[in-house]
Write a structure and sequence with these properties.
- The chain has one domain: Tachylectin-2, Chain A.
- The chain is 13% helix and 36% strand.
- The radius of gyration is 20 Å and the shape is globular.
- 35% of the residues are buried.
- It is built from 3 helices and 20 strands.
- By secondary structure, it is mostly beta strands.
- It has a 4-stranded antiparallel sheet.
């Protein structure tokens, strides 16, 4: 086979992979067990302060919560779309530009549902939970408040499992199953990990583990990222920190599990106020697997 034929075959294979249901990432420098910045000069851009990331199941639509440097206030939701030609379009969705605020201007923390049909986010201050639906033209439209879940105190960071159960936080993590097409109840997630400050929950698709952020004592810095696991009885484990490669003296927050569960994304900001940088990092999910396996071995040793 000629070099040209090999090259064409490789290109065809790459194209087939990209359109066969796998996630398309903007960065081909895939991380291992050590975190690295995600998509520099595309997502992680100097002078841009990104709090969180979410993406469509195929990875070709990315939504980013953008903040300011001084007050850590959510300024807008930024979108990066990958066209069929693999060109990038960067904009702000129309529903964000046209959003009518009831109180104080603030909008962010977007989260796309696994079925790609609903977008959840927070808006106003104190923030409430909102959702927008995927319209026929593929855009997000008609945002409505989740009145049954929103409170007067402050509602933050919502994520969703494959069976449409919502997880969210007001300083402790709550959950709401979808019953008859509606979310009507708030239930505090029971577990030792949730007895202290627990924020920014990202639930795994099968709800068998959850990654979250916390400012609890004993961490590495201003805010750290932890993981907890659910056993076959439905009980949650204690919280395990993700280690010194993920958790630094900076403020780590906003964990996000990629649609294929291969990577964990998170935000790293140097300080809460008057920050010099806030970027998105990613790391292989093998890190979370190693933490689970290590602690399973410890628990088995204790039982023996």
């Amino acid at each position: 086979m000629s070099n040209l034929s090999i090259l064409l075959t490789s290109v065809l294979m790459m194209t087939t992979l990209r359109i066969s249901g796998q996630v398309y990432y903007l960065d081909e420098d895939y991380p291992g067990m050590t975190p690295q910045k995600y998509a520099e000069n595309k997502v992680s851009v100097e002078g841009r302060y990104i709090q969180n990331i979410t993406m469509s199941p195929d990875g070709k639509e990315i939504l980013l919560g953008e903040t300011d440097s001084s007050l850590w206030r959510y300024e807008r939701i930024l979108r990066i779309k990958v066209l069929d030609s693999f060109e990038l379009v960067i904009d702000t969705p129309d529903f964000v530009k046209n959003f009518e605020y009831e109180r104080m201007w603030m909008i962010g923390e977007p989260m796309i549902s696994p079925d790609n049909r609903t977008l959840y986010f927070v808006a106003d201050y104190p923030p409430d939970y909102w959702q927008a639906e995927r319209s026929e033209n593929g855009d997000w439209s008609n945002p409505t408040k989740l009145i049954s879940l929103s409170t007067d105190d402050g509602d933050w960071y919502i994520s969703i499992s494959e069976n449409n159960t919502l997880y969210y936080t007001d300083g402790r993590i709550h959950m709401s199953p979808k019953l008859n097409g509606q979310y009507t109840s708030r239930t505090l997630v029971e577990g030792a990990f949730n007895l202290q400050d627990a924020g920014d929950p990202c639930i795994a698709p099968a709800e068998d583990y959850m990654v979250f952020a916390s400012t609890r004592k004993g961490g590495y810095g201003q805010g750290d990222i932890y993981v907890c696991f659910k056993d076959y009885r439905g009980n949650w484990s204690e919280a395990y920190d993700l280690g010194s490669d993920v958790n630094t003296e900076d403020w780590e927050s906003a964990p996000y599990i990629s649609p294929d569960e291969k990577y964990l994304f998170f935000s790293r900001r140097d300080t809460s106020q008057h920050a010099k940088y806030q970027d998105i990092y990613w790391v292989s999910m093998r890190l979370v697997d190693s933490i689970k396996n290590k602690n399973l071995q410890i628990d088995q040793a204790k039982q023996n």
